[in-house]
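Sorry, can you check?
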Amino acid sequence: MTSPVDPIPHWRHLYEQMCGESDTSRVIELVAQFEEAIFSRGQEIKDGAEHRAEWEAMKRATKGLLRIQTQILGWPAVVANAPENGDRTMLVAVLIADDREILRNAIRKVLDLDPNIKIVGEAENFPQTVTLTRELHPRIVVMDLPMPAPEDFSHRDVKRALDETGSKLITMSVWHDDASRALAASYGAFTFLDKSNLGKLLIPAIRQLALS
């Protein structure tokens, strides 16, 4: 006999637990689990009317998450690149760079849930990353390490574009050995993330880097 399927998605269970929890250590654990569940669900659901209600609910829950992180846990809120006139209401501009469309879409869905993050472009190889960084001047570039590149491409091309625009780099890879970390450093990366754990790590990394 099979068990009945729970119609309530896992992320919603976690959100309700998070809102009702008073122990700070437990709240931190639930925050990490919730972010991971939101990322996973974002990969599962498809665009369309049948998922619109859940998508809107996920957006509201993520706004609630920001309140918990800033007001209850005391974590810093994201502050985007502020212009010289002192306007601090701008969003954090992010460029996504990954050669796999399915992962770019998954990252986009997760970041779209954060009202303080604006995705300004997507690149599918290193030359596009360099071009779009120079054109769009994103605050942060989230870049996969193993992407297609022509023979004459150099990591210095990426680093030069970042230096010219003042953009900051977050790299990600399924490999997290010393060689991969050294490669990330050669591109000028501030942060190196395990690609299998982006649901838990990516938004906090963007938030922290945007404040630096």
Notes: Residues 65 and 128 are 33 Å apart (CA to CA).
